[in-house]
Amino acid sequence: IKLVELEAPQRLAQPWRVHTAYYVENSAPNLQTEWLNHPSAAEILADQIRQVFMDSGAQSRHMVMAMPPQAVTHKILNFPAQLPASAIEVQLRLTLENHVPFPVDEIQFDFQCLGLDDANPEQQRVLLAACRKHDRLAYENLLNMAGLTPAVLEHETFAWQNIAHLPGNEL
Fold this sequence. Notes:
alpha+beta, three-stranded antiparallel beta sheet, 5 helices, 32% strand
């Protein structure tokens, strides 16, 4: 269980900074996979999350929770460079079944435009990320059980990458 609390900038031009960083090795590693299917394991993990929050001294109860890589699928796609984000979203909705290994009615997705493709500047690269709706709800419920408020759920790798690029990072 890892907890990182960010400190908001005092002025608009200043960057966010890492305020609190806290890590506890999970005493029962199988909880990371079992809690989704076993309510008693979910309660134990929620208790551990609550304890990490209290021990860390973090102030905000609004959490960004990182979903493990096995719970999220992602893919980089190319779209015409001039296509706006709203049109990309429409295209993704129409072709989603071609890009994700889950039934379309069971998923939640998001995307981010990454910029022009270096090999073909007439194309833009778009990162598509998707997870099962029931997994997203399970992670939200886990935070709620711990007495915390889910604000954002994102892929674990991307969450750590975002934190690693913060000025003043001491992780």
